[in-house]
Amino acid sequence: MINHLGLKRNNSNKELITILPKTSNGNQFNFINNILLTKKTNYLLNLSKNNKKLDKIKYIINHHKTYNSFKINNCIYYINDIVLIFGEPENLIGKIIKIIPNNGLKEFPFWPCVLVSWCYTKKDLNRKKNNLLDKKNYDSISEYELFPTNHKDIIYIESIITKLKVYTYEQYEELNENNELTDLIYFSRAKYDSKSQLLVPKFKDWKKSCVCQRPLNPDQLYIKCDKCLGWFHPECCNIDKNNINDIKIFYCPNCDKNIEKNSNIIIVINKNQLTNI
Ligand SMILES: [Zn+2]
Ligand SMILES: [Zn+2]
Q1: Closest CA relative to residue 200, chosen from 208, 189, 209
Q2: How far is ligand 1, taken at its centre, from the CA of residue 234, in Å?
């Protein structure tokens, strides 16, 4: 069952009723819920005259009901959605873990909130601990790569900007090849433990490519070997990036070495335009 939250910033009793869940557990909560379902709202209004009791009601509601979704700016968000969140100096990304109708925080206690677990990007990683001080290692991580963490915070629902899509590396590559990527599409191939500040799996265990033996970064330019079908940085194979389109057939340094001299396979390149090969 999906329950939608009322999202008006209003602490009237009427508003309290609009966000009431339809299902619940816990005796104390059932007691209050029944009052509301039977529309004995005067009883609640009487209770609300004593602020302490009203606070308790809100507390009980918050702690006995789990919401599955909410709607804001004509978009419905669900638990586990990855969202872009307004932040200074730059926006942040988080995964919705829990919906909190009113947060009880001092400043704006009745504004709906969500508990999020942050998704870090490459700049948030501890470079020293993850063997990323090496620039080429660090550069093998994409600007569109996310690292789900166990670092959590409560944020106001209104700070959510939009929903993002997060794919596996393979799915992202496919979208990339089909020119279907947008700024709202990310991928993830590792998690990040915010306490130990370590990637899971560890960076050294990520799948490696090229002669430089670094993870593939979809932001970078690669050339595919026509024998082993691996991807290689042009610069790692002494190929001028500007001439990459002139190469008809490419064998990586490893495959090139293994091709027998008498083989009838011919490497076709435009030698006039290539340098250092
Ligand atoms: Zn390389
Ligand atoms: Zn090869």
Answers
A1: 189
A2: 7
Encode pLDDT of 188-202 as tens digits.
999 999 999 999 999
Most distant CA pair in the chain, distance: 96
Distance of CA 6 to the CA centre of its chain: 26
CA 146 distance to own-chain centroid: 5
What's the CA-to-centroid distance between 251 and ligand 2, angstroms? Answer: 5
Higher-pLDDT residue of 229 and 20 is 229
- Rounded distance, CA 30 to CA 21, Å? 11
Among the bound ligands, the one closest to the CA of 257: 2
Q: Taking the domain 223-276, which CATH number applies?
A: 3.30.40.10
Write the class of the CATH domain 66-207.
Answer: mainly beta
For the chain, the C-alpha Rg in angstroms (whole number) is 27
Q: What spacing in Å lies between the alpha carbon of 224 and ligand 2's midpoint?
A: 8
Q: By the 8 A CB rule, do 5 and 101 touch? A: yes
Q: What is the mean predicted confidence (pLDDT) over 242-265? A: 78
How many A from CA of 167 to the centre of ligand 1? Answer: 24
Q: Is the pLDDT of residue 109 over 90?
A: no
Dist. CA 19 → ligand 2 center (Å): 60
Distance 270 CA to ligand 1 centre (A): 22
Peptide bond before residue 253 is cis, with ω within 30 degrees of 0 = no
Q: What is the model's pTM?
A: 0.71
- Reference 81, options 156, 3, 148; nearest CA is 148
**Domain definitions of the chain by residue range:** 1-65, 66-207, 223-276
- List alpha helices for the chain, DSSP H: 13-18, 27-37, 41-49, 51-64, 135-139, 169-177, 253-258
Integer Cα distance of 172 and 178 in angstroms = 10
CA of 180 to the centre of ligand 1 (A): 25
| pLDDT for the residue numbered 221 | 93
More confident call, 54 vs 23: 54
